[in-house]
Amino acid sequence: MSNTLLTLNYDVLSDILQLLSRQDAAQLALASRAAYVLAFPRIVSDVTLGGLYHKPGGSALSQLTNFCTFLLSPAPAWHGAPSARIDALQSLQVMRDAVRIRKAGVWTSDASGVALLSSVIARAQNLQKLTLWGSDALFAAYPEFAKNSSPSIQALILGGDVPALRNLASAFPHVRALQFIAGSGSCAPDWALFAAANGGNAVDAHSLGAWQQRLDSVETGLPILPLACPIRRVALRNPLVSDTYGLFCAREFLRRTRPVVLSASASAALTEEELHTVLDAEVVAPGLRFLELVGDRCEGVKEASEWMTRVANVLSTLQVPLLGISLSVTSAIPRMAVRNVLKPFVYSTPAPTPVPTRPSSPAPFTSPQEEGVDITAIARTLAEHAPSLRFISLDLSAAPESNKDASARFCAYDAGAARKVAQMDDAEGTAVLTKMFALNRWD
After folding, report:
1. Hey, CA dihedral for 90, 91, 96, 98, is it positive or negative?
2. pTM to 2 decimal places
3. Which 8-state DSSP code applies to residue 340?
4. How does pLDDT run across 169-184, given as a tens digit for each residue?
């Protein structure tokens, strides 16, 4: 008996298919029915609908209609169970134009297309990740959108205009991870801004439904104040700057979510008082266990180290019961020389080139990299200012004029009355960092 591709162990075949592109998997599916059954999950496991702005109007809607109709129709007997097609869908991204149609010269969302998409979301029992661009238009076109959505959906990613949280919580009650990505108001929807302007009085915690107990992580650009429920991990992408209203919103958002793991970015110019306002332990983060903080736009290594020292000073006044901290920096935007193109050109005779002379005792040149920063000393300062710390991760490699390997991870421990740190190897540091991000309220 000769060995063929299809006689290999299924686990081996699965690993092989992961190395194939979807185009190659589609070509393999044309070989035979057995090859089709094998390659089909690779083809439709991760699908993006829309994004066809370069095509004639209606192309994206036709793509969505054909795809949804295909998934919802029963699979032939040789393919497997009737639901074999839709069961293969694991990740779905819907772009803005996927449901748009032009009527009377105006672009609008097609209600029938949205209803068809809603049926797929409800019946896809293996769908884990759903990305929706312009979800507000989907709910407006079809108010019953995503009603009884699949309980398998764990991650909901929203871009563009989004509806009110009560609509999202009602449509996707089983979601564990919520992410707002950049694009047309997704970082700060109107209802979030209005709630902030009203002091949060418009917040109705009961409108969040099952999210009160199920929501585990949230990533957003700006604070979403109506999201008033305990969330284990919170990530604020937009840097905190010296703006009273912005700092108030960040503080209020953290007070309402009470994160255990917090990832945030702060301007390197932020003062200790301003950072203290956001991370007030008594009000904001009494249960904070791991803090990942990025110093935004540092001018150099010296500024980066000073910023980390300011963070240590803040921790000493807050007395936050941190078990771990990760500090890193981003580089400042380089200044660009702008020539005055309107300045008239004046010809002048060039001066004679001077005869070079040999200096008697040239001064030695010291590069900024040779000066360096004692990263261990920074870790020790953090350990002394925050006695509860057990893990410290520092990364200055992105700062201008720094060494590319200016990063290290340390374990902090008590040595009698003193606090000491010991550097970890890369494997151990990575493993501990992973555990820090997984910390829960009972750890």
Report:
1. negative
2. 0.84
3. -
4. 999 999 999 999 865 4
